């Protein structure tokens, strides 16, 4: 039963495979009786958000997505793999990735058609206006560098554009724009959430701070600097939300490690449990809080492998 609460919009950020935590967050919020009036999605957050807005069986549908055609986790950094054979194998894998990006759109190019087909099965080819609650997704125009907000048009194209990770999936040509992952321009479009009509915005940050290996050369320094820049920008954007839910992952989860989806869902459930008091202070009127002593009913075994 939905409890009386202030209207709010949820902003679901990126994170690749870690974005499956958004499933757990939304499921736990609903079990708590807290239902968003609108949703804004970025990258994997767009996949989850549009599915949530369009179908009643959103949870099982997203969890069951077939992502076998996508490339797997990136090659390990090699701190523990020091043998010559392992080093050669890793170098060859890296060369293949670089070659696929120079000669084409990246290692995920063969997955483009399979990905679009999976998205059509998930969200259909209807428009973003045909949803049970308002929804918006963001992408990045690689030509202009601008953030692009999509609130209409085919849902499958909008979701693909928002999740098209550069160097992995081919960007989407749309109305003269070359659209790629929305996280490049804005990982937490809180202003878009306000435009959908909610004064209260709750954001979900599925990012992960990873302890880096020793930095011994210029390439490693550049990559680390880019990571710092990305996280600092993300923190500034997320700070504009009224509450940020940050799922805690038990290990380092690669962007493309879709085999970890169920543990990511569990992390989303657990962060709502942990932040239950903050959520209720923000959303539930004082009198309603006094009259309710309920506890979260979502169990982590809801996402066990079946």
The parts where pLDDT drops under 50 for at least 5 residues are 76-104, 293-306
Element pattern in H and E: EHEHHHHEEHEEHEHEHHH
Task: Compute the average pLDDT.
Answer: 82
- The portion of residues assigned to helices is 40-55%
Kindly, what is the distance between the CA atoms of the first and last residues, rounded to a whole number of angstroms? 27 Å
Beta-strand share of residues: 5-15%
What general outline do the C-alpha atoms trace? Answer: globular
Alpha-beta classification: alpha/beta
Number of strands: 8
Radius of gyration: 20 Å
Describe, in plain words, how this protein is organized in 3D.
- With 306 residues, this protein is an alpha/beta fold.
- It contains eleven helices and eight strands.
- It has helices at residues 21-31, 44-54, 58-63, 84-103, 112-123, 155-163, 190-195, 218-238, 261-274, 276-283, 286-290; strands at 8-12, 38-42, 135-141, 147-150, 172-174, 177-181, 200-204, 243-245.
- Strands 1, 2, 3, 4, 5, 6, 7 and 8 form an eight-stranded mixed beta sheet that branches.
- Strand 1 (8-12), helix 1 (21-31) and strand 2 form a beta-alpha-beta unit.
- It starts with 7 loop residues before the first strand and ends in a 16-residue tail after the last helix.
- The relative contact order is 0.21.
């Amino acid at each position: 039963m939905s409890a009386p609460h202030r209207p709010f919009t949820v902003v679901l950020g990126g994170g690749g495979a870690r974005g499956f935590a958004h499933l757990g967050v939304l499921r736990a919020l609903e079990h708590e009786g807290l239902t968003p009036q609108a949703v804004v999605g970025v990258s994997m957050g767009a996949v989850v958000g549009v599915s949530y807005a369009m179908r009643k069986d959103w949870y099982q549908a997203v969890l069951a997505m077939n992502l076998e055609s996508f490339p797997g986790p990136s090659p390990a950094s090699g701190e523990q793999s020091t043998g010559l054979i392992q080093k050669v194998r890793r170098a060859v894998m890296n060369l293949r990735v670089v070659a696929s990006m120079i000669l084409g759109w990246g290692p995920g190019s063969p997955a483009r058609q399979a990905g679009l087909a999976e998205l059509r099965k998930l969200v259909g080819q209807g428009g973003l206006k045909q949803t049970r609650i308002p929804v918006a997704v963001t992408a990045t125009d690689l030509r202009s560098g601008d953030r692009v907000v999509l609130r209409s048009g085919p849902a499958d194209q909008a979701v693909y554009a928002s999740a098209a990770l550069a160097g992995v999936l081919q960007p989407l040509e749309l109305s003269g724009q070359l659209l790629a992952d929305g996280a490049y321009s804005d990982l937490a479009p809180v202003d878009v959430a306000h435009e959908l009509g909610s004064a209260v915005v709750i954001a979900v940050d599925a990012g992960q701070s990873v302890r880096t290996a020793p930095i011994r050369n210029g390439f490693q320094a550049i990559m680390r600097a880019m990571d710092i820049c990305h996280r600092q920008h993300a923190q500034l954007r997320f700070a504009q939300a009224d509450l940020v839910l940050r799922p805690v992952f038990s290990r380092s989860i690669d962007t493309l490690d879709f085999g970890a989806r169920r543990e990511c869902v569990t992390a989303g459930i657990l962060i709502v449990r942990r932040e239950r008091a903050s959520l209720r202070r923000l959303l539930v009127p004082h009198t309603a809080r006094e009259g309710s002593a309920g506890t979260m009913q979502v169990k982590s075994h809801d996402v066990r492998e079946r």
